[in-house]
TrEMBL record:
The keyword Repeat applies. This is Leucine-rich repeat domain-containing protein. The keyword Repeat applies. It comes from Paenibacillus woosongensis. Gene3D superfamilies: Ribonuclease Inhibitor (3.80.10.10). Keywords: Leucine-rich repeat, Repeat.
């Protein structure tokens, strides 16, 4: 079963203990050319050396990757690299708990990558693909519910989470820092969303979501917010409260359940017509994407966004790039287009 995010702190330690008990070996990898490997984690490999069972080197051949992956029936082996297989025991588990605070810590260059636990005979008990933010555990739904009751911070995707109240209650209980909401036929977000106080990443894909509530902008730790919907009334001025926001993406004309005959509303009829000047108060903003809207102009206050590197307003109603953007020398990418989501460099001028 997939995890919404990787457990951290005490939850990470309890999950490591669980994985050690249910697995025969664990795997760590170096997914980069051996001659470019840095030595930051040499001490880690040395400390784990007494428990090393086997080292597997996979060359850059897809057939070899597939062969090893099928042999161990594991997500650990998905690309070329050097893989270290270690014996699961209390002592090696203790080292894993000392060396990291969460699964996503297992990433180059500080540590070898993608800690995975393999059961006796093959197959993953616990896996991680950190770059893709993919984590999973091999348990049935009933056991997952029992584990979530026992381990605060272990947030597993359940069939029961088709019920939005259950999803949000579990998300609040486990203080998740990442959440994806889709398929609930929402017309509005419930007020209890304000209690997701640890959220750093939130993605919502609900085609009937038309208004963004004030409670959403109480999530002060948010760094990434993505909203996909068919139409959006407005971007409230209260968005300025999200002082830690680094990435904002809003895409109208989106459908999470297009039925036969479904048609996207023409962009001229999209309700989102303006970007609030308060957007300029998002001091940490690095990426701003707002696509398929009837926005006609940009507020001059965007000029205050000194960290903004990426600006994409594909399929809007703006006729030409505003002059003040020319003074924002830190911008690496600008797309302001009326008729397509992507432009050539020449058409951005």
């Amino acid at each position: 079963m997939r995890l919404y995010t990787d457990p951290r702190g005490e939850a990470y330690e309890q999950v490591i203990d669980l994985a050690i008990q249910n697995s025969e070996i664990f795997v760590l990898g170096e997914k980069i050319p051996i001659d470019t490997v840095q030595t930051q984690y040499t001490s880690v490999l040395k400390a784990l050396e007494p428990y090393l069972v086997k080292t597997i080197v996979i060359q850059d051949h897809i057939d070899e990757v597939i062969q090893i992956r099928n042999m161990y029936r594991s997500s650990a082996f998905y690309t070329a690299g050097t893989y270290y297989l270690y014996r699961c025991c209390k002592e090696s588990g203790s080292l894993l708990k000392q060396m990291a605070n969460r699964l996503s810590d297992w990433i180059y260059p500080k540590l070898p990558e993608d800690l995975c636990f393999l059961k006796e005979g093959g197959g993953d008990f616990l896996y991680s693909v950190v770059h893709e933010q993919m984590y999973g555990i091999d348990v049935a739904e009933e056991e997952a519910i029992e584990l979530m009751d026992r381990i605060s911070g272990l947030f597993i995707k359940l069939k029961a989470h088709r019920n939005l109240d259950r999803l949000l209650n579990d998300a609040i209980k486990h203080k998740t820092d990442r959440l994806y909401i889709s398929g609930h036929r929402l017309t509005e977000l419930p007020e209890k969303i304000r209690y997701l106080t640890e959220l750093r990443e939130l993605e919502i894909f609900e085609q009937d979501l038309y208004r963004l509530p004030e409670e959403l902008f109480e999530l002060s730790k948010l760094e990434r917010l993505k909203i996909l919907t068919a139409d959006l009334e407005s971007i409230p001025a209260s968005i300025s409260k999200l002082k830690n926001l680094r990435e904002l993406c809003i895409q109208c004309g989106s459908s999470d359940r297009p039925a036969p005959g479904y048609r996207v509303k023409p962009k001229e009829e999209i309700s989102l017509k303006r970007i609030p000047p308060e957007m300029g108060d998002l001091e940490q903003l690095e990426q701003l994407t707002i696509q398929y809207t009837s926005i006609h102009e940009l507020p001059l206050e965007l000029e205050k966004l000194e960290h903004l590197r990426f600006l994409d307003l594909g399929m809007c109603m703006i006729d030409r790039k505003p002059d003040f953007l020319n003074g924002m020398k830190q911008l690496d990418y600008i797309n302001i287009s009326r008729d397509s989501l992507w432009e050539t460099d020449e058409s951005q001028q």
